[in-house]
Design goal:
The protein is α+β, with helices and mostly antiparallel strands and about 140 residues long. It has helices at about 15-30, 45-50, 130-140, and strands at about 5-10, 35-40, 55-60, 65-75, 85-90, 95-100, 105-110. Strands 1, 2, 3, 4, 5, 6 and 7 form a seven-stranded mixed β-sheet that branches.
Length: about 140
């Protein structure tokens, strides 16, 4: 069986976990049949590994702060007729320990052993550290 792998993606349009949660809540309020998914131009080559327990890790202002479990990949045909990949996600947004990320485009694969740990239960509502402080702590190995 394939070892799980994750994706890392910039959270474009949301600069915080709260903004992402608000955007998703608004979509769901507008359409009760709304599916929690992120549509991207390319289909992941490591599909089997992603679907074997992988998550999409969200980068906010240069720092991974949250993840969502990947449930499946759906084909999405855009208005332009081009085939895209709809990464269907669990609606739960799980906060993680901050992990700095340099700027990149598209997505990057992330091995399970390199992924930031989930924050302990009960800390989901804690106010996030300022990104500069979280980045500095992560860079010196403090979590």
């Amino acid at each position: 069986m394939d070892k799980p792998v994750n994706l890392v993606k910039l959270c474009v349009g949301a600069d915080s976990i709260a903004a992402l949660q608000g955007w998703r809540a608004a979509r769901k309020a507008d359409d009760p049949n709304w599916t929690c998914r992120h549509v991207t131009r390319l289909w992941p080559k490591r599909e089997a590994e992603l679907l074997n327990g992988g998550s999409l890790y969200w980068v906010f202002k240069g720092v991974i702060l949250a993840r969502q479990r990947i449930l499946r990949l759906d084909e999405v045909i855009g208005e332009d007729g081009i085939r895209r990949c709809g990464i269907v996600l669990d609606e739960a947004i799980i906060r993680t320990e901050p992990q700095p990320r340099r700027a990149f485009q598209g997505w990057r694969y992330l091995a399970a052993e390199d992924a930031p740990r989930d924050l302990p239960q009960g800390r989901e509502q804690d106010e996030a550290l300022p990104s500069t402080l979280a980045t500095a702590l992560a860079e010196i190995g403090l979590r």
